[in-house]
Design a protein that fits this description.
This protein is mostly helical and 454 residues long. The protein has helices spanning 9-41, 45-72, 82-97, 106-127, 133-137, 141-174, 183-207, 216-220, 225-233, 235-265, 272-277, 283-286, 290-319, 325-344, 349-361, 366-394, 406-432, 438-453. The protein is built from 18 helices and no strands. It is globular, with a radius of gyration of 21 Å. Keywords: Membrane, Sugar transport, Transmembrane, Transmembrane helix, Transport. One of its GO terms (molecular function) is symporter activity.
Length: 454
């Protein structure tokens, strides 16, 4: 057995705070931004959908370039850690101004929305070096699982704050979370979350330490071609790339559909904060159990079990009477348990895949691999953002109506339930093909250490 570096509590907590900070803003964007643009800002659904697509195409181009840039350079604070400091304040700033509604004509509002969302999204790309940090912090398989649990716990703490507090704060400030009258509420609420995110990033910068780095000679040779090298030599790298596209597509659709589902299908806007908080609150029970469940069921067994649970929850929401609040909340609870594990544990695959890539190619390309998955995130967010907007446009959704047509409410179910369920089934097939096991991880570490000792 290879003896690996053990992380202390502050390192684990610091990494958790980094993920909480990034996900505070990410969760607001993935859960509420489409609703904000259509119901508060005043954009047409099709215009919002096209903007989501264009912004994420920009992200997709930027991700591999950023990953190559980072892996070729080292800041005075480490290869990845320094960017937590450099990008923290700009990220907080743009997260606020993206939720400000300027008093201008429609065309200028569209330009403003594009500009602020592009900058916010690119800064998110920059900060997603947090995906490269675990592979720089440890190679120990158990430590990776524990580190991922800290990340999930802190991220979902932020998720609870977003789910419950965003509609609550906006409503308390403006009297409603929907309509032009709620604009100031959204801006001030994002100001609060920006401050929390800034603190989380700075705390993470202070406490996280990097223990494993790419050899400087290898770093100097990093190029965009290394993405193709990894894709050719690293099967799990490709499998999880496709998985993440599917996962972020169905997660974005479920999250963005929730505001519409509660407001129109349930016809109970006051329930939104409770409905959304069920999306993250169960994490406090399930996340601490993930290391145990992974040992008992294995990676594949655990992911398959919770994928099925997610589908069952979505089907309850789709086929039950939405006015039956208890049944709808039960369906949401089951779906949330599934979502927390299937979209949370996938990040534990990344440091494993980094090890696998080093084992196969001789290069430990943390940022190359991490940025590939941020590329997948961008694609998933683009697809998950575009589909709802165009479906809403196609089914005749009208943000000015308090009661939508039957066709529009059926469209909301396709956004939040039916299409995501199909994507989850596809994702289960990818997990079934994932080849890395605990035994293989230990073998890889032995051979990597032997090679590095030469």
């Amino acid at each position: 057995m290879v003896q690996q570096i053990k992380l202390n509590f502050s390192e684990k907590l610091g990494y958790g705070f980094v993920n909480m900070a990034v996900n505070l803003i990410f969760n607001v964007v993935s859960t509420y931004l489409l609703f904000f643009y259509t119901n508060v800002y005043g954009l047409r659904p099709a215009d919002s959908a096209l903007m989501f697509l264009i912004v994420k195409v920009v992200d997709a181009i930027g991700n591999p370039l950023w990953g190559t840039f980072v892996d070729k350079r080292t800041t005075k604070f480490g290869k990845y850690r320094g960017y937590l400091l450099y990008l923290a304040l700009p990220y907080a700033f743009f997260s606020v101004i993206a939720f400000i509604t300027p008093n201008v004509g429609y065309t200028l509002k569209l330009v403003y929305a594009y500009t602020t969302y592009v900058f916010l999204s690119l800064l998110n790309v920059g900060l997603c070096i947090n995906g490269a940090l675990p592979a720089a912090m440890t190679r120990d398989n158990d430590e990776i699982t524990v580190l991922n649990s800290y990340s999930l716990f802190c991220s979902n703490t932020g998720g609870v704050l977003v789910s419950f507090c965003v509609p609550l704060l906006v409503t308390n400030i403006s009297g409603s979370y929907s309509g032009p009258q709620s604009q100031i509420g959204w801006s001030l609420t994002m100001g609060i979350f920006a401050i929390l995110g800034l603190f989380g990033l700075l705390f993470g910068f202070k406490t996280v330490k990097e223990h494993y780095h790419m050899d400087e000679a290898d770093a100097a040779q990093v190029s965009v071609k290394d993405f193709a090298t990894q894709a050719k030599a690293n099967k799990p790298y490709v499998l999880i790339f496709i998985y993440m596209i599917l996962a972020f597509t169905f997660m974005t659709m479920v999250n963005s559909g929730a505001s519409y589902y509660v407001t129109y299908n349930m016809a109970n806007p006051n329930m939104l904060k409770y409905f959304n908080v069920l999306g993250t609150l169960p994490s406090f029970l399930i996340v601490p159990a993930i290391p145990w469940m992974k040992k008992k069921m294995g990676r594949k067994g655990m992911m398959h079990t919770f994928s099925v649970l997610l589908i069952v929850g979505l089907m309850i929401l789709a086929f039950s009477n939405a006015h039956n609040i208890a049944l709808a909340m039960f369906g949401k609870l089951l779906a949330s348990l599934g979502m927390i594990v299937t979209t949370g544990y996938m990040w534990a695959f990344v440091p494993e895949i980094t090890n696998y890539g080093e084992w196969k190619t001789g290069k430990r390309e943390n940022a190359i691999i991490s940025s590939t998955y941020q590329f997948a995130v961008a694609i998933g967010l683009a697809i998950g953002g575009v589909i709802p907007g165009y479906i809403l446009q196609a089914v005749g959704f009208n943000a000015n109506l308090s009661v939508q047509s039957a066709n529009a409410m059926s469209g909301i179910l396709w956004i939040m339930c039916y299409i995501p369920a199909l994507l989850i089934l596809l994702s289960m097939g990818l997990i079934q093909m994932y080849p890395i096991t605990d035994k293989l991880m230990n073998q890889m570490n032995i051979e990597i250490d032997a090679q590095n000792a030469k």
